Task: structure prediction
Amino acid sequence: MITPNHPFRRASMAAAAVALPVAFLAPAGASSAAPGTAHQTAAVAPDPSAKLDLGAPGLPESRTVTALAPGLTRTSITRGTPNQDFFWTAEVAVPSTSPDPDAPASALSTQAQAQKVADKLIAAGVVARVEHVQSPQLADAGGDLGYRVRAGHFTAKAGGSATVAQIQSAGYKSSVIYSGWDGDEGSSENDHGLWKLEVLTIDPKEFRGDLTSSFGPNLEDRETTSQLADASGALAATNGGYFVMDPAAGAPGDPAGSAVQAGKVLSEPVGDRPSLVIDAKNETSIQRLHWHGKVTASGKAGGLSLDGLNRVPGLIRNCGGTDDTPTNLPLHDFTCTDVNEIVAFTPEFGATTPSGPGLEAVLDAQGTVTAVNNSRGTAVPAGGHTLQAVGTDADKLAALAEPGSRLTVDTELINDGGKPLRTSPTTDVVNGGPTLVENGELNVTAKRDGMVRAGDSNSFFYGWVHKRNPRTIAGVDAQGRTLLVTADGRQTTSLGLSIKEAADVARSLGMVNAINLDGGGSTAMVQGGQVVNSPSDTAGERPVGDALLVLPGRKG
Result:
């Protein structure tokens, strides 16, 4: 296992990879390489007989299988053909009908409001149209989303600039989008593509290396997936879970959800969102986790509950905590607040803990309180903790953490059955959501996992769930193999996936349990030190919070 307090180890990568172009993958248990070819392996793909359930039936689909090691393959998939029916168009931000004067404009509205905006634009010389948006039904969301206003059909993005200027002159905000990125109900069945995906398949029965995770030298800083892979000598890697990006939402790089590395809990879950759990012998599972955190003092009854681990007190990215404002439920890409919190820190966080007003108790490796500071921000002792408190919880912590006293910090993750997650030095946990596939059936839990926002006219759901974006998927098939998938998007040469399409892809690849990981500009796959997909950020590969690494060495 790679830990932040260990020098990264450079492993040998001398084994050659073998690329095998195929129309579809060889049956499970059979080698896809010719006799005598290096790295013949059974782990070629989960469901060889079926092509992807994506787009119109019968689309051309090509796959190239590269054997990276016994039990480890990378499959490159191209499906469909460029669709000449897609075009660029201007999408209008429709003003809210809310009585709140600060309510933001939205991509979606009621039919009456959308038509009102379209009529004003038409009067201003813009050829506007109103479109009804219906989303595929998911387990707990989807259906009729509302109405959008668009204008123009352009062969290139730049062609929409004049129309956007007209719309802005009429008093509305607008941007140019590509119609191929829509995820409207029925669109996938008629689309011809194009889609580009990469699939890593790890067979724990054959692979003798490690599947693990890494956040780099510390939690609070960000590195690219390729940097994390290179530092460890990984055979392959993908980006991992959600993380803080904006300093206003916490410490950039911090996990925004559960995180365990080498058996040590480093970040609390978001509500009971699902996570990818990696255990001994590279076996993985998808589990919904919540947590219990408490600090107690030797010789004193009771104790204090912890609100979080290794994050800025008062800021809860993706929400899902306790006594949070505005909600204790998961709320994706939103930062909840709590003015009264106690947060524990471990040495993995970084050189110093977050600074600011409040109280911070410093505990050595034996749990002895060596200092109580009346402001926050200090180094965490090796093997020890610090405890930060803000608001009224500062007085509570001061009463418990007397200098020289001994405190015990307990943190554990709890599974859906109410039992503690059994961890060992080979256990890693990477956060994700929503669930895509459960027990072999589609079960997309967008609302439960916080991707539906009340009172925003379905705009967040529209952009994040409904529309096609780059995606990273993790799951396990019926034979116990782990699959890590990246789908390129936000490009005319690769459309990306809606969340419903991501679930369809996961199941058609044979996954019986699967979740969505961080995506968008974070989506990246690395093999042999090179990024093998096409990240969507204009700046290139995005620095992320953590990555899933496939290493040549066995866990200790």
